[in-house]
Amino acid sequence: MHPSTFPFVFLFAILTSLPGVSGFAQPRADEATIAYLQKFRSAYARGMLDAQPELITAYYDEAVRLMPEFQKTVMGHAHASSYHQAFLTCFTVQNYDRTETEIIDLGTQVVEIGSFSMKVLEKTPEQQHALDGKYMTVWKKQGDTLTLLTEAWNYNHPLEIESHLKFTQVPTVDISFQAHLPIDTPLRFELAALNQLMEATVTQHDAHVWSQFYADDGMFLYSRNPVYQGRKALDDFFEVHAKESPIFEKLDIRNDRADDLGQYVIEYASHTAIIRNGDFSGVFTGKDLRIWRREPAGSLKIFRHIGMYD
Fold first, then answer.
1. Which of 9, 170, 229, 245 could form a disulfide with 219 if both were Cys (CB 3.0 to 4.6 A apart)?
2. Is the pTM of this model over 0.85?
């Protein structure tokens, strides 16, 4: 062991010996960042209620990526604006609430995770719907400036209007059919290997191995489900989920971006699944935003994860 690792290992041993301490100090954002993100949440609610998407998109980076549930990935500021305009053309938002769960400062990027609830009136046909969900946003830091780089969200429950949340007039990118990252760095090699193991694990319905991809304090924001956090909740979820999963004739998991932030890695992943379940069969695609954390022993574990179906 290199001498420079001794202080870290010693500190880790002390922390993990204390009750209720995971060994990791949560990289909490500073007060200025927290206040700015609060301002965005307020602007988001106002933009939805007043049908003014420009209040939301004013915070977007030019290279923003939207990862909505039931819609393929939306890339770029102009197309993100058209997505929000399409949503507000189809729905009148009667109530909207957005609540932060945690804000994590990862150095050059900041991650916020939270929940939202809204009541919308579908204009054609006129019908009210209650939508509850969760989100993960990634912000880019440049000096004292924050711009929203990525916004991903899904819903906590099945929706009768899932097909109505796909807006064909919005330009999108089918990320699962795009080229994956070339495997030309140690990190990309590692992620490619992990994704191949995940393919085998999911297709074999191996709940025990599936759960081991996640850190003991990991969080999974899965579509049509509540949030699962912590070892027991994750183990219990994958035990049930693996049994309920269909037969996978083919599963391809890949990534098109991975931001190396030191101890943390933000991976933009996607999948194509050919499945059958009884007489039903089909080809489905989806997308994932995963934050991996380098554990003391050196392995990468999923720290935070949100997944969306296309």
1. 229
2. yes
Comparing CA positions, the residue from 143, 147, 167 lying closest to residue 68 is 167
The strand pairing partners of 153, in sequence order, are: 135
User: How remote is the C-alpha of 85 from its chain's centroid?
Assistant: 23
Written in H, E and C, the secondary structure of the chain is CCHHHHHHHHHHHHHHCCCCCCCCCCCECCHHHHHHHHHHHHHHHHHHHCCCCHHHHCCEEEEEEEECCCCCEEECHHHHHHHHHHHHHHEEEEEEEEEEEEEEECCCEEEEEEEEEEEEEECCCCEEEEEEEEEEEEEEEECCEEEEEEEEEEECCCCCCHHHHCCCCCCCECHHHCCCCCCCCHHHHHHHHHHHHHHHHHHCCCHHHHHHCEEEEEEEECCCCCEEECHHHHHHHHHHHHHHCCEEEEEEEEEEEEEECCCEEEEEEEEEEEEEECCEEEEEEEEEEEEEEECCCCCEEEEEEEEEEC
Instruction: Decide: 243 and 233 in contact? Cβ < 8 Å.
Output: no
> Which tens digits make up the pLDDT trace of 207-242?
999 999 999 999 999 999 999 999 999 999 999 999
Task: For residue 249, count other CB atoms closer than 10 A to its CB.
Answer: 12
Contact (CB, 8 A) for 219 and 306: no
pLDDT digits over 277-305, tens only? 999 999 999 999 999 999 999 999 999 99
Amino acid at 36: Y
Locate 235 and state its tokens.
Answer: 């183990």
